Amino acid sequence: MTTRETTNEAPVVAGLLLAAGGGRRLGGRPKALLPHRGRPLVEHAVRVLREGGCATVHVVLGAQADEVRARASLPGCVLVDNPDWEQGMGTSLRAGLGSLAGTGAAAALVSLVDQPGIGPEAVARVLAAHTGAESLVSASYDGVRGHPVLFGAAHWAGITATAQGDRGARVYLKEHRPEVALVECGDVARPFDIDTEADLAHLE
Prior knowledge:
The chain is of the alpha/beta class. The chain has 6 helices and 10 strands.
């Protein structure tokens, strides 16, 4: 089930937040609901996308989706349920790109809910490198590709066809490496993940 917002014109680039993870190494706590600055982490991640320039944000939910909907304040977001979230990030990416079909968006700027060290500055830099439906743009950290990543609409079908398990778009991006514009963000963001109990120290 997908809840769509009513809008007359879709923005050129839509934010796509992957927030379905169940936090297996965190005792089964959904990453979207981890507390950060007094609120669920998913709220922070949505705010980062909006402050970085994404007027529309699609959020893919999976683990305890009903509880996330009940506890997190996500007004104006398009909430996308991924019933196959346990199979890995690839299913969430496919669900998210599927939710953008027909919206008129020329690109999707994809971010992960468990990377609170990546703020609006990095989002804005990647967004600024967008040139059209053929764009492939990735933040990089000391030259190493990371998130957020921008996929022009011309690439969505190819990404959907290759996104499997936890690989997401990795295979597609590797195959199209010469086309990927890297935008250095190491001076404005830290690309750590919240995966283990030790990582919770990064949350505030």
